[in-house]
Amino acid sequence: MMFSTLMISAALVASPACVDVFDEVEDTIQQNYVALALYQVNAPALAEAAAARHASYRQQAARIAADDVLECTRVLQGYVRSYGDPHLFLNSSPVMRDADAAQRRASSPTVAIGTTRLRRQAVSATGRGPLVGVWAAEGFEAAIIPEADGEFTAVVLESESEFWNAGDVAARFRQRGEEFEAILYRAEDRAPIRTDYEIVSDRILSMPPANWGRIAPQPQGVMGEWDPHNPRAPRFEMTSDNVAWLSIPSLSPDSIGDSLQVIAEEHRDDIIGADLLVVDLRGNNGGSSSAIAPLDPFIMTHENRDDYAVDPYSPVLLSSPDTVAYYSRIVDQMPPGLERDVFADLVRRLEENPASLQPMLTHPDHIALYNDPRVPEGLFEQPENVAILVDGDVMSAGEAVLLRAGQSRRVTSFGVSTRGAIDYQSVLMVAVGDGDLRFALGYPLMADNPLLPAGGYNQGGVPVDVPLQGAQASWPEQILTYYGLR
Q: What is the model's pTM?
């Protein structure tokens, strides 16, 4: 089976020309992307570079044939990715009629090999690369096997979903230069969804917005109970060294639910009695930094570290019709009070000053509300030491947790600098294009401060107190040695 022939098909709902979708994407970025507006004010060279990239990518889009959906998607996503901001992204979201969806499901590719043989083949071929093996996806398990042409195919082994049967091809993978490309077949209609993929911590196959968890070969060095069907769920373990080890690979509500609250309550005495609490954020792909709140009593201290300076909270936004509409909806849903006044004042200024950069906070009471250095209630004196462990995959809300926890006198951070996706926040998603060329464009609504990109973290990530060397498998040992537990 050839990779490309099964991915490309004519649009089943009328699609616009690739260059027209490109122009719609560009117009949306120009009108709404706060980072670009700050480039024009604070970093003209970056604005000029963005304009040059725009011209180059637009030429590519103009040359793409009307029915080459895959190549158009590559160019559009490549252009958005060229800004280097993980909070600016373009996800494929094709539109399909019900009758066409049924036809595509009926003609979708299958593999006529028994599932036992497929499973054995996937496990025995792991020398062909980290993709090969058995993985858990939403509603099914799949074997990823190598093809003769150096590409890879994911075949369903067993399914709890009405849309998948054993032998169905669920995805294809290949490397194009420095890009790692996945084509996921959408369950309900088999529409091909192009995305980038990466393997996080050797056990999570990340293909935004999907995450698959490795079943076989069994992941090594996993702390806590590993659930491949929910690979980004928190995991807790008390080690033989009396270390409380809490792995949090995501802060997304879909992944963690109330599990951190449950862990904090069920293991309260374990954590308080531990010689060390390790909050392992490696691979954390973001979500909501407030989700970490149940752990605050174990992490935070009444006074901040002497060497830790906290900058005032001073975000800025770019006024646009979409931004005004978004914050107007927020105001409508909020009860009367000071916080509602903050957003009502913001909406008023955004409406009165179109296409301008506006500070979120201007009134002294509003500034004080968001810069109140209140310490969480009910702090525990123990554990005395807390280690925050991060790697280069930690981003967004994971970075926010690292920065806030770093204020605590009992916290020391370890690992390497994070990915860098925190300067521009609060993502809004809008639809662009149509038919097979319909996408969800996500962009951040606010910048952390009006001086960006200078002094931000997106370029180099958030640094750590104690850099760790060597393979990640050795990092736990290095942390224990640092605290004299070895």
A: 0.90
